Amino acid sequence: MPHLAHIALIVRDYDEALAFYVGTLGFTLVEDSYVPEQDKRWVTIRPRGAPADATTILLARAATPEQARFIGDQAGGRVFLFLATDDFDRDFAAYTAAGVRFVRPPAVQPYGKVAVFEDLYGNRWDLIGP
Question: Tens digit of pLDDT for each residue in 92-108?
Answer without folding.
Answer: 999 999 999 999 999 99
